[in-house]
Here is the input.
Amino acid sequence: MSLKTASFLLCISILVTVVSGFERVDAPRAHDKVCLGTDNGFSYPGPQVHYDRFRSRYRDCTYVSGNLEITHMSRYIASDLSFLSTIEVVTGYVLIGLVTVDTIPLHSLRVIGGDNTFEIMGGNRALAVVMCDGLQELQMPSLQEISKGTVIFYRNPLLKFVNTINWDTIVLEKNNPAVIATGGVSES
Here is the structure.
């Protein structure tokens, strides 16, 4: 083997080693607890059953393969949503709708992949927060990226700080990345 060939193979070997050391953001890591997401939209089996299934599905979960749909959560039934704070990645969309809880703690959520999007109000949304009359805080301090799809906040009269987030730095879709509306009046 010539010196040129050996040097070339060594460079390729180093490159493969370096590249294989990087994790894909959307791929689960060895220590992740992978949970299957849902595709139910706004369907609803009843308050206690819904909450019990939801808590069971996402307890200790770090990686949601599919969609995270947080719907029909009543402050009277779903008073503790702290189990959501371990979720780091959602490969599909995040739908939050028709909830009356005060706070949704998605403290560790870093990436919403948007592999599936939720079609609502003329757009394909990776994050949709709609008609949440009691929601005051959506806690997502770790959110770094929404890979595909856009964001909508619609009719959430008590939700704070939505207008203070620079969605352009988080949402990779640059064509109208975020729509923030109260009763149909856009504030984006």
In short: The radius of gyration is 20 Å.
